[in-house]
Design brief:
Blueprint (H helix, E strand, L loop, with lengths): L2 H31 L17 H7 L6 E5 L9 H19 L6 E5 L11 H4 L7 E6 L3 E7 L18 H12 L2 E2 L2 E2 L5 E2 L2 E2 L1 H13 L7 E5 L17 H8 L4 E5 L11 E7 L7 H13 L3 E5 L17 H6 L2 E2 L4 E3 L13 E3 L1 E2 L6 H9 L3 E3 L6 E2 L7 E8 L5 E3 L17 E2 L3 E8 L1 H6 L7 E5 L7 H6 L1 H14 L22 H31 L1
Parallel strand pairs: 1-2, 9-10, 9-11, 11-12, 12-23
Antiparallel strand pairs: 1-3, 3-4, 5-8, 6-7, 13-18, 14-20, 15-17, 16-19, 19-22, 20-21, 22-23
Helix pairs in contact: 3-5, 10-13
Amino acid sequence: MDFKHAKRNRRLDLWIVVALLFSLSFGINFLVSGIDTQIDLSPNKKYSLSRESLALLNKMDQPVDLIITLPEKASMPKIIQRFTHDLDLLLDAFERADTPFPIRVHRMDVHTPPSRENILDRYKITQPNLVLAASPQNGTRIIFRYKEEKGSNPYDSSQAFRSTESLARQAIWEAGFYSDWQEVKNGVMEPGKFRGEETLMRYILDLASPAMERRVVYFTRGHGESSPQDLDPREGNSVFRGLMEDRNIKVATLDLGTIERMPNDALALVISGPKAIFQDKEVKLLRNFLNQNRGRVLLALDPVEEMALSDRPALGLRPLLKEWGIRCHDMLVFDPKRENFDLFSGAYFLRTYQREASHPVIKNLMNEGFSILADRCRPVEIENSTQSPFMGQELIFSSRDSWALSSWTERSFPPEKNTLLDLAGPVPVLSVSQPNPKQASQAGLTAAGKLMVLGSSKILSNEKLRSGAGNQALARNIVYWMGENNEMLDVPPRILQSYSVSMSKNEFELLFYYFASVPLMVLFSGIFVSWLRKEL
């Protein structure tokens, strides 16, 4: 037997197998390249649009073009390159979305003459570094604009020095594509979460959703209420305002004491944490808005000192609340369990929901097991009557071990329960009331609206909405409930997670060498074993 030819044949077989493997790999890649389908296998469908966004996009009545003239260049600031990368992943999800009208994405270079694509001429776009939304009927909306600047002169003492990276970060921050900015090394602000889906949805809905006659939510002022423009991380309502604006609802403020009638475009009225008494004229405006204009009112009342307001309980709103079957006592909810209630700060965890005939506002929260972060709470009870034109429901409660304290400003802490004057738990802290169809028509209230009362305004504060997933889901459901988007209440919330890595150049190089050392060690080990076998 000639072993020389056998060795040669084995080598030939080996090369044939290598060639077949290469051809198989090439053929599979060629076939896959022709398939325009993507499957998101990440946890919670991180790279796909949320079910809420898809449900909103199904209301589009015309197509929308998303146009990007922002070039992908290595010379761009790092924050712009990160933004471009995050945006590309999101735009792919919008293109794949199954909607009645397509969302077409166009990545264009304004410096090169178009061949067959006339999208730039159609919308008269000539500037680079833009992200726009456009529709044939409603024109264009600039979502993001970046003006390339070289930074300020470090030797000019008349103005503070600003680097190119700093100016780019300011443009990104003003566009609202990122949130949770935090200071890292050398005072540089880094974003935490990418809000591209919410930001783009706002402009798409503005262009393509059916027009609404009433689309403004007014926040009252003049009584010490929280402001929707307040960016304070604890007390403000700017996050709640953002939730509304992301869903194509405008937000404004209104002083009830300076007007004679509610604006025609008023969809709802929000009274968040008032501290002063409402006058009779203001209460009359609220009553007419609720009873005659199909108005929606969200009232968030915090516990107040009873003795100072004994002549006007519930800040003068008790007669109106009583008409709608709601009792909002000037009491304080107390819970002896420390895992639910913080005696010093007043922070409270609400975990008990109405079980029978679950209301759509809390149905998803109850099914997902969300907790609601609150502060000091007051009870909000329902008194349903068979003769009343309104029917109410108590939705969220304190724990069974809690109770509501009467004359709480005069009580010593920890208090002892007074079975005669205190209200036994579980204590309702969120209730809703709306017309009972049969009785309301008999009473002539065919145009009556909805009323929701919260026993703590801090549930919708910036601090609680940023830190509590349950608060975010509740606030979202409240917005849809006020806007009559009942089908959106059946869409479960998706908890978004964001991860980022920040490191210096030296740290990055060290990490690169660390990961590169493993395959290099395997390679050299293979070479050594091959040499050793030849020697033996």
